[in-house]
Amino acid sequence: MSSETVRQAGEEKDMKLYELVNFYHVGTDLSCAEAMYNACNEYYKLNLPEEARKMFSVMGLGMQSEQSCCGAFTVAAGMIGLMTAKEGQNDVDNMDGYRMICDLTESFMSDFSTLHCCELQRLQIPGFENPCHLIVEEMAKKLEAILPGSGRN
Questions:
Q1: Contact, 64 vs 58, CB < 8 A?
Q2: pTM of the model
């Protein structure tokens, strides 16, 4: 599945971020992180280089170990940093990004009680054979609410 496919779908209908995430995630072999990365790159029209995709590619499945943070959350936090940090700005100076990540974390913890990949994978969610499908969809909805249409033309 190429990003060109989504671009064509996005031109026919103004897709929400969660719809793009589902397009990339449900019924594909992409990890949660890859799906979130591809959807954000499309939705926010970032045109990120291949190097950025490679960097995020190992963040799925809790950093490939299932023992770390949800890959979709990690990519969402990276996107917040990408879109809020100013050129040459240190982390301590990015209060907008800090607040957004705190909001995202609080919301995610309220809904799922953990950010830990293997605990999320064990959740029993009615109507979902794979709980990650709902988790990644909800992450995309929360990210879109925090960064509504930022960077979109």
A1: yes
A2: 0.84
Nearest to 71 by CA among 106, 113, 12, 25: 25
**Phi-psi category of residue 148: left, alpha or beta, with phi > 0 → left and psi -120 to 50 → alpha:** beta
Whether the Cβ atoms of residue 56 and residue 75 lie closer than 8 Å to each other: yes
pLDDT tens digit string along 42-96? 999 999 999 998 888 887 765 656 678 888 999 999 999 999 999 887 778 889 9
Q: Collapsing DSSP states into helix, strand and coil, what is residue 69?
A: strand
Q: How many Å apart are CA 112 and CA 103, to the nearest integer?
A: 14
Strand partners for 69: 116
CA distances from 134 to 18, 29, 121, 125 (A): 10, 16, 11, 8
- How far apart (Å, rounded) are the C-alpha atoms in residues 62 and 85? 25
